[in-house]
Specification:
The complex is a heterodimer.
Chain A (H helix, E strand, L loop, with lengths): L8 E12 L6 H16 L8 E4 L7 H9 L5 E3 L7 H14 L6 E7 L1 H4 L22 H15 L3 H15 L13 H6 L2 E3 L2 E2 L8 E10 L11 E10 L15 H12 L8 E4 L4 H10 L8 H4 L18 H4 L7 H13 L12 E8 L4 E8 L5
Parallel strand pairs in A: 2-3, 2-4, 9-10
Antiparallel strand pairs in A: 1-7, 1-8, 4-7, 5-6, 8-11, 10-11
Helix pairs in contact in A: 6-9
Chain B lengths: L6 H10 L4 E5 L21 E5 L3 E10 L9 E8 L4 E4 L14 E9 L2 E8 L3
Antiparallel strand pairs in B: 1-2, 3-4, 3-6, 4-5, 6-7
The chains are: A alpha/beta, B mainly beta.
């Protein structure tokens, strides 16, 4: 989106359900519980929703399945599937649809029961024909090869990767909603079971159940709701490939471009951002996105995360809920970057609430570093 | 059997005959991989096929860790070919941990998952 849409829409409700293990529930049950929680947060009802923005890991028409389950007949629907970034991407399409009057109440929603259903990634994707014969483990082999290349080119170390996991855990330890809250040291990460060199199981996100939902309206009516509105100041996407074998430079993601345009639309720069919520499917992600979004120079991400800089009390708060590494990761994590950013701004974050957060960034990643979507959210003070 | 017509068919049938053919754009002269009906660089639709020299270098690599009873650890890597394209593959003949970035490798047609596939071995010094 461009600066013409800056601040035209606002998040007025967030909700989640089924964090950790949602025994006995289907993915659509968790989706619906999340929707109800977000609408309750906003003081709205399902019958008010006329715009639906949804994708799921199962089915080829999940948005239709979700509308049917919820018992609504939306007049605007977007089920664009770019992987975990989809839900950050919906901030753009929801803002456009709201601004154009194509809907009045937009519901962004997701749910998954992948932990209790199978214990591994549920996906309707077919393995890519020119990769499948070599049996890469999807998606970890892709991220492992990106990490290996980053280490080769820039001297990034396994200790740097471990520091990302340790920082995420230290945020999670303050968050009662987080799934993994036990102590975690650099040595624990380094000594954990190797799953795809150079990544150990502690470099990988959790496999949990869970769902999330966001309710958005046009900015002019945003003050009429129960919680302080959180405005979408800028959001932008860029897609570079689908299969990891087609990634041009394994150390540079399209977040370079999505970030640049999101910052331009919002009229702010990385130095202005007070809380950073990144899609950390693997520890290398956090390093890549901090570089590509401009929080540090290319190649310096490893050194940047050392010494607790992104942990509680550090110079830059990153993944303040514990992230996909320690809070929740139900197949696709993207929606939770937006929910945590919004809650930090509203002042009702479930874990460590930072003081006076007016500007936060949410960044979604989809596929295998394939789709990058950046959003800048702000309080009333930033309009 | 009728002649192969689609790019995937042409590539796969050559492989079945022990040959590695790479698609090359007749307009801009650049190679691409995977095979497709257009050049992803200049978007020209005139594609020729050239036999790969087989020379390449490991661009990045990982070891997929697997329990011994399920077959043990194996290599997955990206190889950059002399022609300028990259493909996913594995290096055979050495242990997966010994596959390292920048090592020179040579392509051969082997078998993966029961079908002909491009595999690599360490280049002879």
């Amino acid at each position: 989106m461009t600066d013409r849409l800056r601040g035209k829409s606002a998040i007025v409700g967030t909700g989640h359900a089924g964090f950790g293990e949602a025994h006995g529930l289907t993915a659509y049950d968790v989706m619906a519980q999340s929707a109800l929680a977000a609408l309750d947060d906003a003081g709205l009802r399902l019958s008010d929703v006329d715009g639906l923005f949804c994708t799921m890991m199962e089915d080829s028409m999940p948005a239709l399945m979700a509308a049917e389950y919820l018992g609504i007949q939306p007049r605007f629907i977007d089920g664009t599937m770019t992987g975990g970034s989809s839900f950050v991407n919906y901030l753009t399409s929801a803002t456009m649809a709201l601004d154009a009057g194509l809907c009045d109440v937009a519901l962004i929603v997701y749910g998954s029961n992948q932990r209790t259903a199978s214990g591994k990634l549920v996906t309707a994707s077919r393995p890519p024909a020119y990769e499948a014969p070599y049996n890469p483990r999807y998606p970890i082999s892709a991220y492992a090869m990106a990490a290996a290349r980053h280490m080769h080119e820039y001297g990034t170390t396994r200790e740097h990767l471990a520091d990302v996991a340790v920082a995420a855990r230290s945020w999670a330890q303050h968050n009662p909603e987080a799934f993994e809250r036990g102590p975690l040291t650099r040595e624990d990460v380094l000594g954990a079971r190797m799953v795809g060199d150079p990544l150990t199981v502690r470099d990988c996100c959790l496999v949990t159940d869970g769902g999330g939902a966001i309710v958005m309206v046009r900015a002019e009516r945003a003050k009429d709701f129960l919680k302080p509105p959180v405005y979408v100041l800028g959001s932008a996407a860029e897609s570079s490939h689908r299969q990891i074998s087609q990634m041009k430079d394994f150390t540079v993601t399209a977040a370079c471009e999505s970030g640049k345009r999101a910052f331009a639309a919002a009229g702010v720069s990385p130095a202005d951002i007070q809380a950073v919520e990144l899609y950390d499917a693997f520890t290398i992600n956090t390093i890549l996105f901090l570089e590509d979004l401009g929080f540090c120079a290319k190649g310096e991400g490893g050194a940047f995360v050392e010494g607790g800089r992104i942990a509680p009390g550090g110079a830059l708060p990153v993944n303040t809920n514990g992230g996909g590494l320690s809070c929740v990761h139900p197949g696709m994590y993207g929606i939770f970057t937006v929910i945590e950013a919004a809650r930090q701004i509203r002042g009702d974050a479930p874990g460590l609430q930072l003081d006076g957060i007016d500007l936060a960034l949410a960044h979604g990643n989809g596929g295998v570093l394939s789709s990058q979507v950046t959003a800048i959210l702000g309080s009333q003070n930033t309009l | 059997m009728p002649d192969a017509t689609g790019p995937d068919q042409i590539f796969q049938r050559a492989l079945a005959n022990g040959e590695i053919l790479l698609p090359k754009c007749k307009d801009c002269g650049a190679y691409h991989f995977f095979p497709r009906v257009l050049c992803p660089h200049c978007h020209g639709a005139a594609i020729s096929w050239k036999r790969a020299t087989g020379a390449g270098w490991v661009h990045t690599t990982t070891v997929v860790r697997r329990k011994p009873e399920r077959g043990g650890d194996y290599n997955v890597c990206m190889v950059e070919l002399e022609e300028g394209v990259r493909m996913m593959s594995r290096v055979e003949g050495i242990s997966p941990e010994n596959v390292v970035i920048d090592m020179a490798v040579t392509a051969f047609v082997g078998e993966a998952e029961g079908t002909p596939a491009v595999l690599f071995k360490p280049a002879e010094a």
